Amino acid sequence: MAEVLNTIMNRCEFEEVTRHINDKISVIKRLLELRAVAKDADKRGTLIKVEQEVNAINELLDRFERHVGQQRDLLKHLKDLEEFFQEDEQDAHHLKNNTPLHMPKKGQQAAPQEGGQVAVQSRQTDAPLAPQEPGPPKKNQRNQIKEMEFITVLEFDSIPPYMKGRVTYDHLNAAVQSINTTVTTKYKILHQPIKSLNNLSRALHQRFKDQETKDTKGQFFIVEQDIREFAQLKVDKRFVGMLNMLRHCQRLREVRGGGVTRFILV
Fold this sequence. Notes:
By secondary structure, the protein is mainly α. The chain has helices at about 1-40, 40-95, 140-145, 155-160, 160-165, 170-190, 200-210, 225-230, 235-250; strands spanning about 110, 120, 220, 250-255, 260-265. The N and C termini lie far apart (about 100 Å).
């Protein structure tokens, strides 16, 4: 059996060698024919033209090859751009679907609810936050009212876990919005001429003045009673914990005196 296999393999190798030799002989014959043709003056011009055409075709093929390479590189670049665009599109959809609750939409303002959550309502339907809605302050007065800046993600992450507990990023910024609402309402009343206020608003005005000390001079501050009345929130243990977090983020500081804790915006 082995001898038969060796015979077949030897035969295949012999046929392959024979075919290779025959091909070489054919090439040599063509070269000899072309050599004989090249000696003919009439046909030599034709061979030169053929050579020129072949060279032109080779040059054209080289150009096509370079162009194909450039298109291949361009296609790769476009695929990379497509991937970047898809990532940006996914990020945009994520931002759209996960907009923080404390960020009101255009033409709307965020209104605090119980528990630190924020609901968005139109300006035309805002409920009055004081017994008497103060008249619109002058432009320079409105600019003078300070507001607390919202907490950034990096700042929230820097708060120790034991201090945060179950409070989320949105909860803390809802508290910021509630404090801003309280500060704005309080100082709108303080900016109004006393003669323009009714008796209840005058009492609030006097209360605000009585709570001022030398440490609060020129500062914007509120007390727990202000938060309960103007933001309509319970100043419970959870909310006090959020006030401590805001102190940690250097958004406010406390000044105590006369049995009242004053939260001063930093």
